[in-house]
Amino acid sequence: MSQIVNPLLQPFTEAPFSKIKDTHFKPAFIEAIASSRKEIDAITQDEAPATFQNTIAALDYAGQQLDRISSVFFNLNSAETTDQIQKIAQEISPMLSEFSNDITLNKQLFARVKSVYDNRTKLSLTTEEKTLLEKKYKSFARNGANLSEDKKSRLREIDTALSTLSLQFGENVLTETNSYELHLTNEEDVKGLPESAKEAAAAMATSKEKEGWVITLDYPSYIPFMKYAQNRELRKKLSLAFGSKAFKGNEQDNQANVLDIVKLRHERANLLGYETHAHFVLEERMAKTPENVINFLNTILEKAKPAAQREFAQLEDFARSKDNIDHLQKWDSAYYSEKLKQQLFSLDDEQLKPYFKLENVISGVFKVAEKLFGLQFEQVTDVDTYHKDVKTYRVTDTSGNYIALFYADFHPRKGKRGGAWMTSFKGQKIQDGVNERPHISNVCNFTPSTPTKPSLLTFNEVTTLFHEFGHGLHGMLANTTYPGLSGTSVFWDFVELPSQVLENWCYEKEALEIFATHYETGEVIPMELVQKIKDAATFQEGMQTLRQLSFGLLDMQWHGQDPTNIKDIKKFEIAAFKDTALYPETPKTCMSTSFSHIFQGGYSAGYYSYKWAEVLDADAFEYFKEQGIFNSEIGKKFQEHILSKGGTEDPMVLYKRFRGKEPQSEALLRRSGLL
């Protein structure tokens, strides 16, 4: 009976959020997995010889209902989770992992895929079909299809364990983040905080039925406190709480999880014939090998380190002259950097925020997309959403053709994980002559409006909005035949190009004039402030670069060698950071136990890709600047060769088609002022 009314099992275009109850998810997953199995059986039991259409294409189009249900569920688990949803995630993750393994370890299915793959030179396939064939074959080979039975069964055990461990890792970090609060009742303790941050902290206290102010470990609360609070002891307290997430030896401790995850990943790579997890991962990246990644990171380190050391010495001198601080600690970093930045550029976030009202920035990013790619965004109110904060937009091109549905969810709340991300509720594909258009979502955690002020963004939040919107465009403008190659289904070290390149427009006078207007007076942002933003953009670039490189190198240390003998996470981490460390070590903190990017979010052996993509984006934006930042011809080339093509071809081929040459790292070093 419940099957009839389960909205997830009915055909739907837009996700029917208001009709979905938590109890619908598990039965829907069970049912959708069963029907996906039938689709796979139909492929394997086909008596006709295997062809590209009846095997490779059929496999890529299979399981669409399961994909939709998964995208709705896992997006809610990130943006609007409950204890119930987390419990369901623990129950269904092993089921999904098992189903995925049943496909990759299905001998008859692999035999059919392999027979098409072995005959590929005799087939007249399009470029996209060749790429899909290669991807499907590798998805089997890289998941154990060529292994003996006993090794296959060990692989299944590893995959099930890994899916549970990474979920547990993430839940521990979320619990630790949510369970900490710094409750302050003395006005002196919030001295230095801008009014907006004080208001937000007071609102947080009120929501918890407390007097005074409450600071949490969520970024919109944590960062302003670390940047502006004069009380050094309280900054230290908050910093140590932040840095010790899941590293306290309590129930939420992630140390054992980290060691289990890296050891299982290593064993998995060995089973599949790879030297390390990094060798396995990088085979499917632009970088290709761990050696290339290490060389790439070290090349930039060589240029950035002297600059970082100079900047650090300057910051120490500044803190000494200002407050007699002998040795800078991690909790001094944001505070004195902000003070020094104000002294050098007389620029602070509070000066800029009135020009960045959230609604104006949103219409600004839409305008940029209109000028570059001819897109129109119209807010619509008849689309079902999972929370009242979520806004929806219908996206069309200049001829009025429907391009995408766009969801925007911009404020923090309980049950929503921190950070910012792009995701999709429905992918793009062309099937039976119909171009199914995508439903794309941007989720962020920006300072909400207060009783006296609208939501005003820091400049950092502005660039975050543009960044995630760049990913959004990659999804919205997707135009490929097969869902498995559509939108952001590209190599990980290529996926950040559309997002990072879009951030560049935030620094350009022509773009800022469109949306950076004072929320009270309507005055356009003064050009001397724009100049200061540009000058300040390379402020402490050496230190920032060193920080990014340290995360990339830590990731490669965890995944580019045999981790079997690692016993002490903290010791291991100190060794990994030795070439990039500037601040004294804090014994009770640990990065790895809350490094969700690599232990939960899919960036394992891939964190370097942020820097890699910066090289791509700096090089690409130089091309725009040469021709004019709103040059629609270059915009069209970017859309045609990068945004619409997804993973249909090798990314270096696509990039060279757009740019006319390979990317040069000098563009990044020039932009960063590190040359």
Can you tell me about this structure?
By secondary structure, this protein is of the alpha+beta class. The protein folds into four domains: 2-146, Endopeptidase. Chain P, domain 1 (Glutathione S-transferase Yfyf (Class Pi), Chain A, domain 2, Up-down Bundle), CATH 1.20.1050; 180-243, no CATH class; 252-331 and 340-345 and 538-675, Neurolysin, domain 3, CATH 1.10.1370; 354-537, Neurolysin, domain 3 (Orthogonal Bundle), CATH 1.10.1370.40. It is built from 29 helices and nine strands. The protein has a five-stranded mixed sheet. The protein has a two-stranded antiparallel ribbon with strand order 1-2. Strand 4 and strand 5 form a beta hairpin. Helix 2 packs antiparallel against helix 4.
Attribute tags:
single chain, 675 residues, alpha+beta, Glutathione S-transferase Yfyf (Class Pi), Chain A, domain 2, Neurolysin, domain 3, 4 domains, 5-stranded mixed β-sheet, two-stranded antiparallel ribbon, 9 strands, 57% helix
Short description:
The protein has helices at residues 2-5, 22-44, 52-61, 64-79, 83-104, 107-118, 127-141, 149-179, 195-207, 219-228, 232-243, 255-271, 277-282, 290-323, 330-345, 349-352, 358-373, 459-476, 492-495, 497-503, 509-515, 527-537, 541-559, 569-576, 596-599, 609-627, 632-643, 651-659, 666-671; strands spanning 181-184, 213-216, 376-380, 391-396, 402-409, 421-426, 429-431, 434-436, 439-443. The chain is α+β, with helices and mostly antiparallel strands and 675 residues long.
